[in-house]
Amino acid sequence: MRADRGWVALRSSPRRRLLELLAMQSGRTVPLDAIVGELWGDGPPEWPREAVQTQIRRLRKTFTDLPVRSDDHGYLLDLPPGAVDALHMVMLVESASGLEDEELVSTLDQALALWSGEPFGGMAFGARHAAAAAHWAEVRSRALRLWASAQLRLGRPKPVISRLRAERVGDFADESLYRLLIDALDQVGREMEAVTEPPSPEVVEPVWTLPEHVDDPTGDRTGDQPGGSSR
Questions:
Q1: Where is the DNA-binding region (predicted)?
Q2: What is the DSSP string of 136-154?
C-alpha cells in the first residue's frame, strides 16, 4: 500500500488484517465485535476496544491521510470508488450487464486486469476475509465466462485459447470454462488439443496482495495491550 513516503508492506499482523477488513467494507461501518473476531479469533485480547484503538493509531501513523473514522458502533474507512482493486473489479463486472459484445469485452478486460494474485496473499484469516475471497474469485470466474463467450460470438477464438490455457482451465472443476476452451479450439479446428495437450505452464494466479517494495519501517506488535482512545 502507498503511504506518503512510498510503498509500505504490512506484514501479516492485526494491523494489516484490520486495514484489509476496513477496505473490503469501504464506506460501511465495521462493528467493533466483528473487528475483534476477525483479528484475533477465539483468542481476543484482554482489552479488545483498546487493542483495536491501538491498531487504528498505528494505521494512522503509517498512512497519515487514511480516511478512517469511528462512530458509536465501530470504524469506517471511506475510500473513493476504484481505490480497492477487488471492489473495482466487482463494480466493472456488474456494469457489464446488458452491454454489446465489443463494449462487454472491453469492460471485462479492464476488470480482469485488476486481478493480480490470491486475495490477501492467499491468507484469509477470518470468516469475513474468507467470504470476501470466495466471492471475488466467483465474480472473476463469471467475468472470464462472459468475456470468453463474447469473444467467441465476435469470432475471436485465439484470445480465448490463450487466456484460458494460461488459467489452466483443464486442471480445475469449472466445466463451463473448459467447455468454452473446447469451443474456441473447435473454431480454429483444434478441438482435440483441449484433451491431448497439457495446460500452459504460464499460470495467471488469481490477487490482492499488498506491495512489498518497501518494508514497513514502524514494525508491528500484536496490539493486545491497552492503548487509549484513537478517536
A1: 1-89
A2: HHHHHHHHHHHHHHHHHHT
Task: Decide if 52 contacts 14 (C-beta within 8 A).
Answer: no
pTM of the model: 0.74
Distance CA 41, CA 50 (A): 16
pLDDT digits (tens, 9 = 90+) for 67-117: 999 988 899 999 888 889 999 999 999 999 999 999 999 999 999 999 987
The backbone region for 11, taken as left when phi is positive above 0, alpha when psi lies in -120 to 50, beta otherwise, is beta
DSSP 8-state assignment for residue 8: -
Q: What whole-number distance in Å separates Cα of residue 24 and Cα of residue 27? A: 9
What gap in Å lies between CA 27 and CA 34, rounded to an integer?
A: 16
Dihedral, CA atoms, 122, 57, 212, 216, nearest 10 degrees?
-130
Single-letter amino acid, residue 163: R
